[in-house]
Amino acid sequence: MEKLYNFSQNDSVDVVPLLTTHPQRTLKESSYKMDFRGLIFLCISFQKVYSCPGLYDSLCKTYGEFLTQNQGKVAPGTDERLRILDEKYAGCGPQKIDIRELTIRRAQEYFASGQLSSAQLTACYLNRIRHLDPYLRAVIEVNPDAVVIATKIDAERRALKVRGELHGIPILIKDNMATADKMQTTAGAVVLEDVKPKEDSDVVKLIRESGGVIIGKTNPTEWAA
Predict the structure, then answer these.
(1) Are 13 and 135 contacting, i.e. CB atoms less than 8 angstroms apart?
(2) pLDDT tens digits for the chain (225 residues)?
(3) Of 69, 6, 9, 83, which is closest to residue 17 (Cα–Cα)?
(4) Nearest to 122 by CA among 4, 214, 219
(5) 3-class SS letters over 77-130
(6) CA distance linking residue 58 with residue 47, whole number of Å
(7) Where are the beta strands (DSSP E) in the chain?
(8) Cβ(186)–Cβ(195) under 8 Å?
(9) Beta-bridge mates of residue 108
(10) Contact at 8 Å (CB) between 4 and 22?
(11) How far is Cα 186 from Cα 149, in angstroms, rounded to an integer?
(12) How many CA atoms lie within 13 A of 81 on its CB side?
């Protein structure tokens, strides 16, 4: 098991360590919850064929106990640490532009004026994910090629080739949108870990064609629609 993030002593966190069997994908606490739901679903299916009396009730009890034990568990001082990290990693580029509520239109203005590049903005958002997500657990995987893609998009802009409104904009997509790259597509289900589609979904194709930079996937509920 490998840690997704490396923290300095000053950025250490008092939460459950994020572990993964894949260099980029995190096995989060919510994944354990989803696993139980998946087991219950499978048991219902198996009961129809093999009959496993008592197993469904046992799994429900185990899942209920898990939720009871873990509900509301937040490390002391988490809110304050998040506030500090949020401020610390808010600025991007030489001018330390605040990117926390940056709109697409405003980002395009920064790109056009040269105050910010797509590669810089992409790296900044990935840095925010690296430091804040261990608390939020909102991102299930980051795209290892995101900065490289953003650099190529910047080169297109310098060559006066702007694909559209999303040109160079970093984007997070849901984990049920297929991507034919180094990321997985699991719909939030641990049982689908290592699934890699052969082609992009229609939505992802449109994002790429418009110049959007997919920087990772968000952490949905299991089999999210």
Answers:
(1) yes
(2) 333 333 233 333 222 222 233 334 444 444 433 344 444 444 444 444 444 455 545 555 554 555 555 555 556 677 889 999 999 999 999 999 999 999 999 999 999 999 999 999 999 999 999 999 998 999 999 999 999 999 999 999 999 999 999 999 999 999 999 999 999 999 988 888 888 899 999 999 999 999 999 999 999 888 877
(3) 6
(4) 214
(5) CHHHHHHHHHHHCCEECCCCEECCCCCHHHHHHHHHHCCCCHHHHHHHHHHHHH
(6) 13
(7) 2-3, 19-20, 91-92, 97-98, 139-142, 170-174, 213-218
(8) yes
(9) none
(10) no
(11) 23
(12) 17
- pTM score over 0.85: no
Cβ pair 118, 169 in contact under 8 A? yes
- Residue tagged 């040269």 (tokens): 114
Fold of 2-28+73-218: Amidase signature (AS) enzymes (3.90.1300)
Q: Say which residue the tokens 């958002």 belong to.
A: 125
Domain segments of the chain: what residues? 2-28+73-218
Q: Are strands 170-174 and 213-218 parallel, antiparallel or unpaired?
A: parallel
Residue 44 has phi, psi (to 5 degrees) of: -60, -40
